[in-house]
Amino acid sequence: MSEITPMMRQYLEIKADYPDTILFFRLGDFYEMFLDDAVKASRILGITLTSRNKNADGNEVPLCGIPYHSSAPYLAKLVEAGEKVAICEQVEDPKLVKGIVKREVVKVVTPGLVIDDASLSPKENNYLLALFTDGGRWGLSYLDLSTGEFRVTELADLQAAVAETACIAPREIILPAAFRDPAQAKALAAVTSDRTVTYFEEWVYDADYCKRLIGNQFNGATPATLGCDGLPFAVLAAGAVLHYLLETQKGQAPHVTSLTPYAQTEHLVLDESTRRNLELTATIADGKRKGSLLGLMDRTVTAMGGRKLRQWINYPLMDQKRIVERQDAVEALMRDPGVRTEIRALLSGVYDLERLNGRISLASASAKDLVALKGSLSRIPAIKEQVSLLGSGLLADLDGGIDPLEEIRDLIAAAIVEDPPFVLRDGGIIADGYDPELDELRSISREGKGFIARLEAQEKARTGISSLKIRYNKVFGYYIEVTKANVAMIPEDYIRRQTLANAERYVTPELKEYEEKVLGAEDRIREIEFSLFQKVREAAAAEGERIARSADRLATLDVLASLAELAHDRAYCRPEIHEGDELSITEGRHPVIEEIYATERFVPNDTLLDNGENQLVIITGPNMAGKSTFMRQVALITLMAQMGSFVPASQARIPLVDRIFTRVGASDNLARGQSTFMVEMMESAAILRGATPKSLVVLDEIGRGTSTFDGVSIAWAVAEFLHDNKLHAAKTLFATHYHELTELAVTRPGVKNFNIAVREWNDRIIFLRKIVPGGASHSYGIQVARLAGLPVEVIDRAKEILLNLEKGEYSEGGVPRISRGKKAQAPSPQLSLFAGDDDQIRQRLRDIEVSTLTPLEALNVLDQLKRML
């Protein structure tokens, strides 16, 4: 611009302090955006882009704006797009200021620090997460500003840090500035690629500074008193979060009242691959909640209950006592459907107390929020009464910890109208009878004409002047007009204001007092109402810790009632949790598949795993027969049991499992240069490194991404490792199409063979979905291909090739007939890759331990030998 206006200079000075944010610059009733901010915001929001200085050649300033009173949806859209927004308000009354009104940024809204409902999913947390490392251990801290949840932990290495970050699924991540370097950033690409990342310089991670921030936030507490002694990196990560909070919120968050340390050993550990493969909170196909375990289990009736259930699924317990306490509560609720139904009905009217508390604490709650708080608190006495009927244990603890907060409920009921307006400054918020001064002003405002008429009649009677009139104009305000003929009758307290040709105008102290009240009544009403509202909100904020405790207990009660409702409706059993090694499930079912295909009978299956004779189960059978479903259901039942939930089975004994690993299906990561086979091998490597005898491992097809011989070799070696290596000998379900692996049962005492039963009929197969002992003799791949709709000529040719391979047929040149069709020319001779069948048969016979074969295994071996002829 040829000449910068004072207002634009002010904008540029403020914008310089917030270069990576979109600045909402308050001008009257609008938030305006200029220059690059305007271009970016107009594109994201789909609003018109205009400009200032249109007549100045080449100096146009891009401009767009939104109404300040309806900015929430626009703000939500920008944050959803990953943008940060600085809210710059007028901090002076324009009526009282000459020149430019002072403006300041009052807060910065970022994807990880959202508190407005328009930008939040009700049943999902909105986390800001910070990581710090010295190259070895990692400190991790995360905060949900909307609820006040603040937790820290330390992790052994990068892999654990990435897995935990993926589990928490933050909206925004804070990292040291060193991670701006592409080489360093690559290590965290898996969790940062689609999230907003904020970088802090090294000084932010100074230990003394971080401890000081923690002390300021938690009333002088030290990391040691908060349970973080021995977690130096976690303390630095927590300090980064609190530093960011001060930078963006321009102050502390009073509702963040605790910093909770936790360790991975407290929970059943689930890596990112396992969470994805088991579809715990989202489906693999479309990332939707519906069709996941969470979608199946969530019958909660409150938003805070839904968030807690998600947390229970992500962090199953390793503490047998706590698991049993949850089971006892679920059982009590399940056995008393009347009480359960009443509790759920009462809870359904409870608003999201955690997020209401957050907004109240941060002084952003509306009058409607306070009314919602009052309505929720009003239901607590009835909820406590119902819970008290169910006995002791966890439910009794919850009952004792739920605080009705009667004084806050009664204060809001007395002060706030039942249906207040959305805009605080418009008035109409405070109830009649709460404040005498407000009531008087409202009376004056509502009955101005009536007051004047009454006063006029009163003055006529007092003076005896029947022609006396009370009038108003903008120059003199209210006045009493008396004709010249009646001046002698004027009382002493009348004060002359103006003389006219035929009349005199007067005022009285009473009229002057009324004028001051009535002329400023509306403005004064709004001021008083807002002041009273703030006092009520501050009173509620002062009880934030009590509100938070009650909210947490109500959320837990909601989850327990939800689990009881699910167990009752789906006929789940209570699993026995023990510290041994036997995992036994009778008539187990896949919880999600059973629900999705509710019109079909789900075929249940039994499972027995331990660290002895049933340590590694090899499962063979055709595709689509149900191998993957069976193995996933075992993992899900185990996880549900350690949540404290009942499980889909008629009976179950579940040992405390420290980790669940899964290697399922085929996927690649081309963005990171990883093929399907590479991903498979990396996941397999992680399992072999991390598995322990207390782990549960689910392997669905190892070695399928390479040649047959390579694949069989890798699969065999992996199975042997999981059996033979006592440090990693986990309870394992191993599904494979490599029938060679069934021979492991001959030489390994802890290996058992099972297969999915099928029936052949007219060259077609019928899936029975039943797990039976023994190995499968066929893969039935061609029959499955037929079901998938491959052309008939392809199916016929595949059968021909299969027959040739099984019989070992070769051309005259020694080439297997797989290489040519019925009309193809014979290829040039070359050495056969399939020679030496007689030697293979002899070697197979030598390896057989006849004395240990069961009759069924003997039949399988005989069938294999026959196919080798």
From TrEMBL:
Residues annotated as domain DNA mismatch repair proteins mutS family: 695-711
SUPFAM superfamilies: DNA repair protein MutS, domain I, DNA repair protein MutS, domain II, DNA repair protein MutS, domain III, P-loop containing nucleoside triphosphate hydrolases
Single GO MF descriptor: damaged DNA binding
Residues involved in ATP binding: G621, P622, N623, M624, A625, G626, K627, S628
Family matches, as CDD domains: ABC_MutS1
Keywords of the record: ATP-binding, DNA damage, DNA repair, DNA-binding, Nucleotide-binding
Gene3D superfamilies: 1.10.1420.10, DNA repair protein MutS, domain I, MutS, connector domain, P-loop containing nucleotide triphosphate hydrolases
Entry GO terms, CC: cytosol
InterPro entries in UniProt: DNA_mismatch_repair_MutS (IPR005748), DNA_mismatch_repair_MutS-lik_N (IPR007695), DNA_mismatch_repair_MutS/MSH (IPR017261), DNA_mismatch_repair_MutS_C (IPR000432), DNA_mismatch_repair_MutS_clamp (IPR007861), DNA_mismatch_repair_MutS_core (IPR007696), DNA_mismatch_repair_MutS_N (IPR016151), DNA_mismatch_repair_MutS_sf (IPR036187)
Gene Ontology biological process: mismatch repair
Lineage top rank: taxon: Bacteria
NCBIfam families: mutS1, PRK05399.1
PANTHER family: DNA MISMATCH REPAIR PROTEIN MSH1, MITOCHONDRIAL (PTHR11361:SF34), DNA MISMATCH REPAIR PROTEIN MUTS FAMILY MEMBER (PTHR11361)
Family: Belongs to the DNA mismatch repair MutS family.
Function, as annotated: This protein is involved in the repair of mismatches in DNA. It is possible that it carries out the mismatch recognition step. This protein has a weak ATPase activity.
HAMAP family assigned: MutS
Official protein name in the record: DNA mismatch repair protein MutS
Source organism (scientific name): Geomesophilobacter sediminis
Gene that this sequence comes from: mutS
